[in-house]
Design goal:
123 residues; mainly alpha; Topoisomerase I, Chain A, domain 4; Legumain_prodom_sf; Legum_prodom
């Protein structure tokens, strides 16, 4: 039996991997079209969420270059910080159902790391 030190597929990408596998194993054109539509929806949602996070961070920093740096270069585990739960709950209630988009939680942590006021999370 093989043991992997890390997951073969990062957790946020599991839904895409499942859809890709379903696409590869689809037996009919109708089934392929259904899976392709689901895949397109998933990718569109990810793009939409990424843009919303960029908008929030850009608005909060009032600096597009700094916002880009924050989004690209600053990924930390901050779940123990006091503001994290409030930020996640507010984002969940205001923007997206986080249980449906698990990969978004890491992006939401940026709100806490950079002390972005949660009033900005109403875009």
């Amino acid at each position: 039996m093989l043991y992997f030190q890390h997951d073969a597929i990062p957790s946020p990408d599991v839904p895409l991997a499942i859809l890709n596998l379903r696409l590869e194993t689809a037996e009919t054109d109708e089934e392929r079209q259904t899976v392709l539509a689901e895949l397109k929806d998933e990718l569109n949602l990810r793009t939409s969420i990424a843009q919303k996070m960029k908008d929030i961070v850009t608005m909060a920093t009032d600096d597009a270059e700094q916002a880009e740096d924050i989004l690209v270069n600053h990924h930390r585990d901050i779940t123990a910080r006091p503001c994290y739960k409030a930020a996640v709950n507010h984002f969940h209630d205001t923007c997206y159902d986080l249980s449906q988009v698990r990969y978004l939680i890491s992006d939401t942590s940026l709100v806490c790391i950079y002390n972005i006021d949660i009033v900005y999370i109403t875009l």
